[in-house]
Amino acid sequence: MSVNFVDLPSPNHAPRPDGVAVDILVLHYTELPLKESLDILRDGARELRVSSHYVLDLDGTAYRLVPEDRTAWHAGKSWWRGRESLNATSIGIEIVNLHGDRHDYPSEQIEALIELCREIVARHPAIVPRNVVGHSDIAPQRKVDPGRRFPWKMLADRGIGLWPRAGARPLDGDFHKALQRYGYAPPLAVPPREIVKAFQRHYRPSKVDGMVDPETSSQLAGLLDPLGRAA
């Protein structure tokens, strides 16, 4: 399918640092209806100005707010793969959904999202599958979006992001060090249980309790296993 784009520029952006590649794609939910979300993301008078590169409506319409060669202000205090403050190297998509733990994402919206992500990744080949993340992955103590109903596996099956290799044995050794090796913040920076909950929210949404059980450990192993889909 082709995505229907509407240009609605936001004044809230800045130059990207020279010589820095865009290598992270961050998916959010708005938690507000479309109009309120667009009003906030395009408000240049707010004390704390925010923005994203795109807002994706329920029907799949994509509103372009900030050019991809500019920094949008969507990630805030964040961490992934040893780096902090990820706005400068990321692209942010706000997906209209009132709360991804309670409201499903319409199929039209997800189909448009997959196509939009494919286009973005094609323009920015440094966005490897491991770097397609949710806001909760990069800010686990503050954020839960895009929520437990977000279809991460469907996206991975369509070539966007990763999903664990099935049947992996639970990890040996320190689970939190392995989480950090995959990309998550170190447990000294964020409470360990919140990091585990963020991982479960992405890869085991049926039970998000922050406990390192065998299933959670097997899923992380299935991402790190060089024979699996994370290779």
TrEMBL record:
InterPro entries: Amidase_domain, NAMLAA_amidase_2. It comes from the Bacteria. Residues 10-147 form the N-acetylmuramoyl-L-alanine amidase domain. PANTHER family: N-ACETYLMURAMOYL-L-ALANINE AMIDASE AMID (PTHR30417:SF1). This is N-acetylmuramoyl-L-alanine amidase. It comes from Reyranella humidisoli.
